[in-house]
Amino acid sequence: MKNLITARLSFCEIKCTDAKFIREILNQPGYLPHIGDREVRTIEQAEETITEKFAYSSEGFGFYLMQRRDDDEVVGFAGIVDRDFLDTPDIGYALLQRHEGNGYATEAASAILDHARTSMQLKRVGAIISTGNDRSISVVQRIGMKFLKQVQYPDEQELVNSYIIES
């Protein structure tokens, strides 16, 4: 994903030098119950996560740092991923808790959806959200996604809500 910029945000690839941020965001009180505990407690584990889980595909899939344009502060990450257990690529995003409630998630999700449709030529885009994560449910609904069904995340007992939008 090159040069994705919104009114307030810019996006860039996540690098091993971002390990401190990744460790922080993956251990936030809001991240753990809604997205899951990735057991990333050290900088080394964060670097390994970046290398293994945040790798970019030639098709354009991956997560990107989300930065405020006015001061370059990192506020979260967002992107589109192709998960083996889903029928369609899905939008994912996470914000540092101190940046929640400012509209960044909606702005990022809208930009990622537009990128998926235009640059990646995707006709269907999904999102998976934990039941009870009302803020994220509102975000995907604001960008036009509709509830499809509940799906089981691999190796977990909890069902998550699946949302979809088609062009």
What does this structure look like?
The chain is of the alpha+beta class and 167 residues long. The chain is built from five helices and seven strands. The chain has helices at 19-26, 31-34, 43-53, 104-118, 134-142, and strands spanning 9-13, 62-68, 74-81, 90-95, 124-130, 146-152, 159-166. Strands 1-2-3-4 form a four-stranded antiparallel sheet, with helices on one face. It has a three-stranded antiparallel sheet with strand order 5-7-6. The relative contact order is 0.16. The model has no long low-confidence stretch (mean pLDDT 91).
What attributes characterize this protein structure?
167 residues; alpha+beta; Aminopeptidase; 4-stranded antiparallel β-sheet; 5 helices
What are the low-pLDDT stretches, counting only 5+ consecutive residues below 50?
Answer: none
Supply the number of helical segments. 5
Please name the fourth-level CATH homologous superfamily.
Gcn5-related N-acetyltransferase (GNAT)
Broad CATH class: Alpha Beta
Order of helices and strands: EHHHEEEHEHEE
Backbone structural class: alpha+beta
Integer tally of domains? 1
How are strands sequenced across the largest beta sheet?
1-2-3-4
CATH architecture: 3-Layer(aba) Sandwich
Q: Shape from CA axes?
A: globular
Largest sheet: 4 strands, antiparallel
